[in-house]
Amino acid sequence: xxxxxxxxxxxxxxxxxxxxxxxxxxxxxxxxxxxxxxxxxxxxxxxxxxxxxxxxxxxxxxxxxxxxxxxxxxxxxxxxxxxxxxxxxxxxxxxxxxxxxxxxxxxxxxxxxxxxxxxxxxxxxxxxxxxxxxxxxxxxxxxxxxxxxxxxxxxxxxxxxxxxxxxxxxxxxxxxxxxxxxxxxxxxxxxxxxxxxxxxxxxxxxxxxxxxxxxxxxxxxxxxxxxxxxxxxxxxxxxxxxxxxxxxxxxxxxxxxxxxxxxxxxxxxxxxxxxxxxxxxxxxxxxxxxxxxxxxxxxxxxxxxxxxx
Length: 309
Hints:
Number of helices: 11
Oligomer: single chain
Distance between the termini: 6 Å
Shape: elongated
């Protein structure tokens, strides 16, 4: 069954959490620009710099990720099975077949999707994924990645992270200003007032940066849940996706961290993070826990398997 049946496995609570997160992100934009108005800093300069960085990421992230992971584009002649499976699933999802299909020659089983739109999408898988998953599990993983493409998650998360980029840029700029006396100047009283105002703004920017980072990571985790759900509908097999997630997570845990460094720049794109950072709080992770994802998929399998077949 194609992805058009949007009611299968629908989670209204998850939808509401995404809407709330988007609303809170919008409030951080208001707070940040209010802070810029308060301090008299050049809003247009900061905005142009932030949009410029995100614009570059939006249009060139796919090429950068392929380059940093050393993924090689494979033609239909070089890997007909992979192309055939992706083409079949793309037809089910009612999207064009991804423009580029790539292979990463590493043992860690994983996959990612990138590209600013379905017409410009790239799907990449590792040799470890092809070697370790069954055909049903591979289809389920590719269905998950195509769900990201259909839902335009790369574009959504790129623009959602604009506030993080702008706030991070401001943090660096204000840090260097503080080092070189940019917070003071003028008469002692005027300089003191200016310095106090700029220090307040600096603290405010730091708070906005970390709050917006938390919200962006929360939105990313919610999008993963949606891609799991929609990917299961595309492949018609939630249980296979649950099995694949468990297998990938277990295999990654056994691979030395030094061998995963090749793909660390694509960590947020992967179906399971290659470098999971166990010491980092779960709220700072771009992905939900594998256990919770598996639980949701198995519940979907039990409740809706007859609708998916």
